[in-house]
Amino acid sequence: MTGTAGDPAVDWLGVRHAPAGPDARIVSLVPSITELLIDLGLGAQLVGRTHYCIHPAEAVQRIPSLGGTKKISIPKLRLLHATHAILNVDENTVEMAAAVRAEVPHLIVTHPLGPDDNPPLYRLMGALFGREREAAALASAYEAARDRLVEAAAGLPARRVLYLIWREPWMTVSRDTYISRLLALANWSTLGHDPAQRYPEIDLSDALLRETDLVLFSTEPYAFTKADVAAFRAAHPAGPPAALIDGEYASWYGSRAVKAMDYLAGFAAGFGDSPRPANAQK
């Protein structure tokens, strides 16, 4: 994803970035990386974010918002005199990257494709902004949490899960996504894979549901609620169990990934060995 064994300061595009120094003025257009930078102790150097950069709540309130992850105010960006901007291949658009590049000297592009891309991401940010020690500590915490999840999952059955991220149309995740690779650590394989699309539309058919051991309704990007889970169960009383899953823990990389490992271990354990767990609608 980023970096090499000997040079962590290389981004996803293969660009090597020199250390920024203490006067760096950083714009993060990736919610999970905004959280990561603050957790690394760089909150004071963050001068811009998106509307969706909401964690940690108290810290981000003082950081000016420039717009969404797909479109920001370039005039507002210009006023910030940023030295560095951080983008992501999935979160941001090519057009946005070009517009930001015209205003900010250093553009850092990220693209985590799986949970194990987190330690290189930590080291990249640490190398760029003088937080190597903090990044190393976070990488160690991630690795310990990952080991706990894998150990917990070893005692649980394999499951085929349908992870829903949108409705009208129904959409899911293909296997080459961060979400699918995270769920794989819990011994869960995702259904609905389309090699041509990372986030394909699907038909929520009886045939697909017969293959499914568990339907997961994510709280983001579509804000599914318990009411959606209840409606699904009413429409498919003989279908697979369904549950609401925290989309931030399932899809946010960065420092949140450490907590995500323990969250997923507990979440998966709640389904035990039963094909129709009693807490399926929680």
User: How many strands?
Assistant: 8
- Count structural domains: 2
Q: Supply the number of helical segments.
A: 11
Radius of gyration: 20 Å
Estimate percent helicity.
25-40%
Largest sheet: 4 strands, parallel
Report the principal-axis shape: globular
Instruction: Indicate the low-confidence ranges by residue numbers.
Output: 274-282
CATH architectural label of the largest domain: 3-Layer(aba) Sandwich
- What's the CATH H-level superfamily name of the largest domain? Nitrogenase molybdenum iron protein domain
Helix-strand makeup class = alpha/beta
Mean pLDDT, all residues = 93
> CATH fold name of the largest domain, please?
Rossmann fold
The largest sheet has its strands arranged as: 2-1-3-4
Order of helices and strands: EHEHHEHEHHEHEHEHEHH
* Measured distance between first and last alpha carbons: 35 Å
CATH class of the largest domain: Alpha Beta
Structure explained in plain terms:
The chain contains eleven helices and eight strands. It has 282 residues and is of the alpha/beta class. The protein folds into two domains: 105 residues, 3-Layer(aba) Sandwich (Rossmann fold), CATH 3.40.50.1980; 113 residues, Rossmann fold. Helix 5 packs antiparallel against helix 6 and helix 6 packs parallel to helix 11. The protein starts with 25 loop residues before the first strand and ends in a 13-residue tail after the last helix.
